[in-house]
Amino acid sequence: MKRRSQISANDLTTATESVRKKETVGTSLFYGASKRPVNKFLQKSFDEEVSSPAVQEKSVKKVGKMQSRRDPKVTSVGDENKIEVGGDSPAKQVVVPKSKNLEIFPSKNDNDDEISELELKRLENIRENVRMLAELNISQAKNELKMTAISTSKGTPGKGLKRVYQKAAALPRRPPSARLQNRSPRCYSESKLNEKFLIPVENSQKERHIGTLDIVAVNESEENYPYTDQLKLLLTRVGEEACVTPVGSTDSNVKPLLNMTLNPDRVHKVVQHRTFSLAWHPSPSSLLVCAGDARGHLGLWNADSSDGDDGVFLMLPHTAPVSCLQFSTSHTDRLYSCSYDGTMRYANLSTHKFIEAYVTDVGDGVRLTSFDFLSEDCQSFVVGQSDCSIAVVDQRTSSPQAENWYVVHDRLVKCVSVHPTLSHYVSTSATDGNVYVWDLRRMDAKVKPVCSMQHSKSVSSVYFSPTSGNRLLTTCLDDTIRLYDTSVMKSGERSADVVIRHDNHVGRWLTNLQATWHPWNETVFVVGCMKQPRRVQLYDTEGSLVHEYSNPDVLQSVCSVNAFHPATEALAGANSSGRLHVWR
């Protein structure tokens, strides 16, 4: 490519001929299919116009202006090429990976004297585009946008347990129909069907574990063999830590709860299936949370460690949903759990054993739905059952059987709660829409509740306030959360002092929402929420919304089960895919 100083008369003639050819082709498209105009008069006018001094002078200026642009200077730096372009203005640099094709800038060739105006225009457009990209800093903006997209991408980080994908088993081949066999449908009775399609009712559920079980990390494999050893070391250390007794509630204790935040590092998959229950270990020095799922697993997550699967260990003490979890307040090395398989166990963290605490009769099909401790030493407790009854159990007896059973509802008992100071008062809720308060000292054949609270639909949970027991908190499927005054146990029907409208319809695949108290501040309680973006809500006893815990970039699902840490400012929320979120 020649510079302006090298342009001669021959170049002018060449440029003029190029323009003539281009314009001639263009006019042929207008006048006809032939390459020459069909009108001789128009052809003569065109030749005179192209040969005029004004057109030739304009062509010289245009060619000189195009060739006056400085050729791009390419510099190789590492895995990138820096292209320096520019004309009269200061040069700009564009960074292009070496993998990109740089042949858009043809190399200079002294023998290439003839360049068409179309080629010059194309090269000029390329230079203009490169210069514009350099001025707009497109590369830098692209990198910043990519980093922003990574940090704000939907979905939570894949920490904790890894998702297990299982292929569905192939269905057995059905026997041929009576029509294909040319037989009468009446003679083809159900007794002649293949036994594969007749599943006995008693075998439709997995058999439960019997006796004492060893604590083993079931997420251990050949690649991560020391998981069980790491779990035992963790349980031994945690079991030796002191327990913290809840303190009285004050208004100033609410303020630290409003500053807690959620980040991606505190989101882990703790169990593989839907979460039914949640419990914090009461130690103030470690963040240890346990979750129970729909298949009988217990997931233990140590938020301050990376042992196991990013701090998560998985155990299997039950074969059905783990409906309730609680750590003993007097023995920090005991974790109690009850399940739909009809068993209640406690994990002895010191001896690394799952020991039976209460077992229903085999074949009864009774499910254990909830429990609460009756004594300060946690040796006796009351258990809610699916056969409309509650069972009073004392571990000091020789066998894991109940001392007494009392039928307290017409339908399945959903939740039980013991008064924190007057332990003979027990509240129960059921799917029949009733909430009762019972006095265990006066339970007989014609037992009657001390007081009752009527609801229009099933009541998912009922809890006494944790320190004084002066309030009773219920969550109902009629889209309400109610608060009752229980400072004085008066007989008869009670009406709610505070009614909060709240969407509690979660559908079939989510765990029911349950409003739960703060463990040492009975002026506030926490509950999940169905609204978008997803959040967890904090209410006070006046029915006012105090705060909402959320993070749209991390929290993408409904946290049905929530619990505050009993000794420090921390909140755990569990969704129905086994993932836990911790606000601190």
Number of helices: 7
Coarse structural class: alpha+beta
The overall average pLDDT, rounded, is 80
| N-end to C-end Cα span | 67 Å
* Biggest β-sheet strands, sense, barrel: 5 strands, antiparallel
Helix content: 10-25%
Fraction of residues in β-strands: 25-35%
* Shape designation: globular
How many beta strands in the DSSP annotation? Answer: 33
Low-confidence residue ranges: 1-7, 22-38, 99-108, 193-205, 247-251
Strand order in the sheet with the most strands: 4-13-12-11-10
Radius of gyration: 39 Å
Could you describe the 3D structure shown?
This protein has 584 residues and is an alpha+beta fold. The protein has 7 helices and 33 strands. The strands form 8 sheets. The protein has a 5-stranded antiparallel sheet with strand order 4-13-12-11-10, with no helix packed on it. A hairpin with a 4-residue loop joins strand 12 and strand 13. Helix 1 packs across helix 3. It is globular, with a radius of gyration of 39 Å. The N terminus is likely disordered.
